[in-house]
Amino acid sequence: MKLTRYKLGEILNVTRGASLSGEFYATEGEYIRLTCGNFDYQNNCFKENKSKDNLYYVGDFRSEFLMEEGDIITPLTEQAIGLLGSTAIIPESGKYIQSQDVAKIVCKEDLLDKNFAFYLISSALVKQQLSAAAQQTKIRHTSPDKIKDCTVWIPELSEQKRIGKLLRSIDSKIELNRQINQNLEAMAKQLYDYWFVQFDFPNEEGKPYKSSGGEMVWNEELKREIPALWETKEVADIANVYNGATPSTVDELNYGGDIVWITPKDLSDQKQKFIYQGERNISQVGYDSCSTHLLPSNTILMSSRAPIGLLAIAKNELCTNQGFKSFVPKYRNIAIYLYYYLQYHLRQIEQLGAGTTFKEVSREDIIKFPVLKPSDNILDLWEERVSAFNDKQLEIQKENENLTKQRDELLPLLMNGQVSVNSDLSDD
């Protein structure tokens, strides 16, 4: 495959967004201002920014800054390590305003395919050049000129189109899977709310319990009515709670073994409900050197220091660092219920956090946290129904991990010409 050398500025244009005055930021409105929070840089895609509540803009701006569906954007400010060089595609026309921290990429269509450009900008080659040229401040910056100054080698347009189409098809499948999992999770949360907040779980006749006149009794500890025969327990009554620990990082013999070791970063980066592998493993020597615990499958993991409340369900034996409190259920039918119970009550759990440098929830406070325990027959029915959701979610999650691995392995090979795309395959 023949590759031609270009400066990015020869094959695309890069424009900076509008300078938007803070006095017109609002909590509601017609237009949303784009920020660096719209880049999911782990997955290299667009995300809705939920970190701020004043993302709407109600002031005047030039029409050229209103984004169209399919526009490619890249950040000009590195508010998180690895952000520079990320790309995202605008999902909807007439909704998002390009701000000054965001650059718009426009391809010269006779030289550069749009899909190919999306992956070219986010390739290691371009990211390395942007990182090297970034201003060395606490928050690093790049500029349209620095992006255009990056050197790349690209194939002819027809090959670009085949490469872009292949990579886009993989990403489309990943995104579809992600949406399916989000829908399954929304269904599980809705069912939890219906059964355990509104108390309209099926009664003996299959009718909604509370709405059909099921007996309710006042619970002083929860300060509300609950179904008769349900109990209030403490976490310690339904689960053993363990702290995690970190082996010494000085001794390399502590790491690289067969014991899966999870840190909050493994949850925050992946944002996945199930966890069975982490960024690092530890050895038996490392495990024996610290006070972490080997936890069984279906243990509920919760990050207990900032950010408090990242939750996951372990799907194999593993251990954690000290950033977690881990809940090993004492009953076979309580694990999934406990996961959603903790998720529903995260605000109350966060309020237990204490500390000056960073907030942390202690094991002593966690084990005393009140838990509403439904009757066993309802827990059995809940476990049966939601397990079907969970099994499908885990299957999809693993498929996405395999697709992501395949894409990430293909990307550099396709970009540097080591691998080409069969034209017959690209037409499928």
What this model shows, in words?
This protein is an alpha+beta fold. The chain folds into three domains: 4-154, Alpha-Beta Complex (Adenine-n6-DNA-methyltransferase TaqI, Chain A, domain 2), CATH 3.90.220.20; 163-229 and 375-428; 231-373, DNA methylase specificity domains (Adenine-n6-DNA-methyltransferase TaqI, Chain A, domain 2, Alpha-Beta Complex). 34% of the residues lie in helices and 21% in strands. Strands 18-25-22-23-20 form a five-stranded mixed beta sheet, with helices on both faces. A hairpin with a 7-residue loop joins β22 and β23. It is globular and about 75 Å long. The chain starts with a strand and ends with a helix.
Which helices and strands appear, and what pairs or packs with what?
Elements: E1 4-7, H1 8-11, E2 12-16, E3 25-26, E4 31-33, E5 39-40, E6 45-46, E7 56-57, E8 72-75, E9 77-78, E10 88-89, E11 96-97, E12 102-107, H2 114-121, H3 124-133, E13 140-141, H4 144-148, E14 151-154, H5 157-196, E15 216-219, E16 224-227, E17 231-234, H6 235-238, E18 239-243, E19 255-262, H7 264-270, E20 274-275, E21 280-282, H8 284-288, E22 300-303, E23 311-314, E24 319-320, E25 324-329, H9 335-344, H10 346-350, H11 363-367, E26 370-373, H12 376-415, H13 423-426
Helix pairs in contact: 2-5, 5-12
User: Uncertain spans, ≥5 residues at pLDDT below 50?
Assistant: none
The CATH architecture of the largest domain is Alpha-Beta Complex
Instruction: Report Rg.
Output: 25 Å
- Output the number of helix runs: 13
Gap between N and C termini: 22 Å
- Structural class assignment: alpha+beta
The overall number of domains is: 3
**Mean pLDDT value:** 92
The CATH superfamily label of the largest domain reads: DNA methylase specificity domains
Report the CATH topology name of the largest domain: Adenine-n6-DNA-methyltransferase TaqI, Chain A, domain 2
- What is the helical fraction, as a range of percent? 25-40%
Strand order of the largest sheet: 18-25-22-23-20
